[in-house]
Specification:
Blueprint lengths: L2 H11 L1 H16 L11 H9 L20 H6 L15 E5 L2 E8 L6 E8 L6 E5 L3 H7 E3 L6 E8 L6 E8 L2
Antiparallel strand pairs: 1-2, 2-6, 3-4, 3-7, 5-6
Bound molecules: calcium ion (2 copies).
The site of one calcium ion has 6 residues, from loops.
Length: about 170
Amino acid sequence: MDANAGTLEAWLVDASVKTAMDALLTRSVNNDAFAERDNDSFLNWQLGWWGWLTNTPSHATNNPDGDMASNYAEYVRFGNPLAVDNDAGKPELISSAGSIGLRFDVRDKDSNTVYRVEASTNLANWSSVWASSNSVALNAATLSGAGTGRRTVAVTTNASGPQLFLRTQVGPRP
Ligand SMILES: [Ca+2]
Ligand SMILES: [Ca+2]
């Protein structure tokens, strides 16, 4: 008899191991280890929409709904990859005396995705205003939803000249 067989059998009937495995499985399901609601990685988002990643439409550069956003773009702006929704995640312009800004949602549990706001006076030269990779800046810009995976931020900057343009950029952490 294989000496290891007894060990394996003991392992299988060990109640504490079974309890631990049940807990792990339950946690995986309840914490959406395979579901989009985790909001913490593009991989989980893909699994939530398509299951195992053997389906070509799930790839980052695919665009199965034929709108203007690739799957990765759908992910970062909380879009629906299976329905045309070109306005999803569109930043909202906010302004007050002497300043303008943008309000938008970020995936604040995904540290591999960085959101940026840049400013320009001529649409040719852009300077960085804000980046979500800076946790201090992220917290300062928070409006709601901190730590939920979908945080709404407002980023403002002084607008003293005759014109100022703002844009957002999103991409993997360099
Ligand atoms: Ca799309
Ligand atoms: Ca879409």
